[in-house]
Amino acid sequence: MIKVAIIGAGRGGTSLIEILHNDPFVKIIGVADMDRRAPGIKLAQKLGIPITTQYTQFLYPHKADIIIDVTGNKLVERALLKQVPPGTSVIGGSVAKFMWQLIDEQIRSKQETERHLLEYQSLYQLYMNETRHAIIEERTRIAMDIHDGLVQTLVGLNYKMDLSEELLNLNPPVGLQTLKETKILLKKAIEEARAVIFNLKPLYLEKMELIPALKHHLKTFEGQYQIMSELKVQGNERKLLPRSKIFLFRIIQEALSNVQKHSKAKRIRIRVEIKKPHLKAIIKDDGVGFDLEEVSKDPEKWASFGLKGIQERARLLGGTAEISSKIGQGTTVTVYIPLPEKEPKILETKYPEKDTRLDR
């Protein structure tokens, strides 16, 4: 892990803190600024990062691998070059300015994208009919998947490449290590791109076959995240409308995404019961769980956990979604979707009777 010290807590330092704090390969060991009211100082305090008014504290041997000076102060720049200990690299001047401006642009772009997505959701909820509502909602989900996953990985990859180029000149051993870390990020980006492509158009859902699509998705999920899954089905999916199949697939897909991102689970169990008057789907994991009451009071957390999307999809089908969770006891999502009064004739003639149960 690379130890980074930041000198300057204005706009540049704040941008660096925001992006580097979430990097698993970087540890910010401290932020220095004479102004205790600087925005970067307040952010560092919030994140638990040490702060100081004396940047010289970073000049002890083995204290920092990289010192980034975004003050633009020539005196500080000259002092750093004179006093920098062996094994420590200093990034300052135009290089540091370019770095934080790039990161600041990425952060502002992310915020702008999120703002447009919220506006987009509000508009389609007000003006679209139910069918078009569903289509736009899926487009929004896909945009969020790309933005929260692939785009963030690519942003990190871009930063790592810039940092590698700088370090290969200043500190070759650290630069080579950063290149190795960049390769790991690149592999992750490729995996996320493949997942996004599959999620855009699941093969079996083209034929309106829900259970095969779920089995295929779970197989991919297990291989990618090493989380074991179990699927049990009772009843026949011919009783479901095509739209219900697609929405149920997306609900389970969202629940699996939540498990992978938040739960630290080792196993997930899915049970689908297709029996009038409704379909019942239960998705249960053995993860760390969360305080349901606390999360339900915070709209941002509720949305970031994917719970809002699950409930909205169920509601669009005339159903409901119930979430139950306790810290240390995992999470259970239970979905109820009403079945049509009559079995659709087009599906009766299209599909032969088949056993959809899966025993693992």
In short:
This protein is of the alpha/beta class and about 350 residues long. The chain has helices at about 10-20, 40-45, 75-85, 95-125, 130-170, 170-200, 210-225, 240-265, 290-295, 300-305, 305-315, 345-350; strands at about 1-5, 25-30, 50, 65-70, 90, 230-235, 265-275, 280-285, 320-325, 330-340. Residues about 125-130 and about 345-360 have low confidence and may be disordered.
Q: So, the CATH homologous superfamily of the largest domain?
A: Histidine kinase-like ATPase, C-terminal domain
Average pLDDT value?
A: 77
Tell me the number of helical segments per DSSP (H or I, 4 or more residues long). Answer: 12
Query: Which fold does the CATH topology of the largest domain refer to?
Result: Heat Shock Protein 90
Query: Which descriptor suits the 3D outline?
Result: elongated
The amount of beta strand, in percent, is 15-25%
The residue fraction in helices comes out at: 55-70%
Tell me the Rg in angstroms.
25 Å
Number of strands: 10
Order of helices and strands: EHEHEEHEHHHHEHEEHHHEEH
Show unreliable segments: 126-131, 343-360
Number of domains: 3
State the CATH architecture of the largest domain. Answer: 2-Layer Sandwich
Computed structural class: alpha/beta
Q: Report the biggest beta sheet as strand number plus sense, adding barrel if it closes.
A: 5 strands, parallel
Quick one: CATH class of the largest domain? Alpha Beta
